[in-house]
Amino acid sequence: AQSVTQLGSHVSVSEGALVLLRCNYSSSVPPYLFWYVQYPNQGLQLLLKYTTGATLVKGINGFEAEFKKSETSFHLTKPSAHMSDAAEYFCAVSWAGGGNKLTFGTGTQLKVEL
Amino acid sequence: SQTIHQWPATLVQPVGSPLSLECTVEGTSNPNLYWYRQAAGRGLQLLFYSVGIGQISSEVPQNLSASRPQDRQFILSSKKLLLSDSGFYLCAWSLAGIAYEQYFGPGTRLTVT
């Protein structure tokens, strides 16, 4: 069965430092991959997605992610963290035959410190 | 542009009382609709999804039910709430198809006392 794993339920970085949030997927068919952000007591907001084509995907708020098939990964990065980036981040996957559904990872809480 | 609404934003209900949460989408036709729950400290759990009026797929057997009486309306219900039903309920929509992202509503915070 297809699944997605987010390594590290909590990540802490200093303001201005690199943000790296890890996501690995398991899929026997080509996946479609998504990153979402959730601020406290709000719904999820799409940051970026990979379907086909260019493997480096740029999203909103300066985030980007690279699809690496050989590593079955889709890690989220941002060169310089800002205090406003503090939130929970979810990786998700869908695939052909998956029934119009997304499978979400368990989330990574990002803390940004001064 | 498309908009998704959920109400109420917060709800406090006693154990054993009924529940009705409503979700509506504007600006699109025949969307796929989804209900999720986030329990405290846990990830997203897909409860129900619908690909059309009257078509409901249940992901997890539980104390809840869903209905889709109109194309862009999705309702989550319970006849008798349990303490374990507390959580943050999110509605989402997507275009039909496997590569389309889901767009989420603002959520309803339900506390069962």
How do the strands and helices of this protein lay out in sequence?
The complex is a heterodimer of chains A (114) and B (113).
Chain A: E1 3-5, E2 10-14, E3 19-21, E4 24-26, E5 31-38, E6 44-50, E7 56-58, E8 64-68, E9 73-78, E10 87-95, E11 103-104, E12 108-113
Parallel strand pairs in A: 2-12
Antiparallel strand pairs in A: 1-4, 3-9, 5-6, 5-10, 7-8, 8-9, 10-11, 10-12
Chain B: E1 3-7, E2 10-13, E3 19-26, E4 32-38, E5 44-52, E6 55-58, E7 65-70, E8 73-78, E9 87-94, E10 103-104, E11 108-112
Parallel strand pairs in B: 2-11
Antiparallel strand pairs in B: 1-3, 3-8, 4-5, 4-9, 5-6, 7-8, 9-10, 9-11
A few lines on this structure:
The complex is a heterodimer of chains A (114) and B (113). With 114 residues, chain A is mainly β.
Largest sheet of chain B: 7 strands, mixed
CA gyration radius of chain A, whole angstroms = 14 Å
Identify the quaternary structure here.
heterodimer
Radius of gyration of chain B: 13 Å
Q: Percent helix among the residues of chain B?
A: under 10%
Mean pLDDT reading of chain A: 93
Largest sheet of chain A: 6 strands, mixed
Distance separating the two termini of chain B: 38 Å
String of helices and strands of chain A: EEEEEEEEEEEE
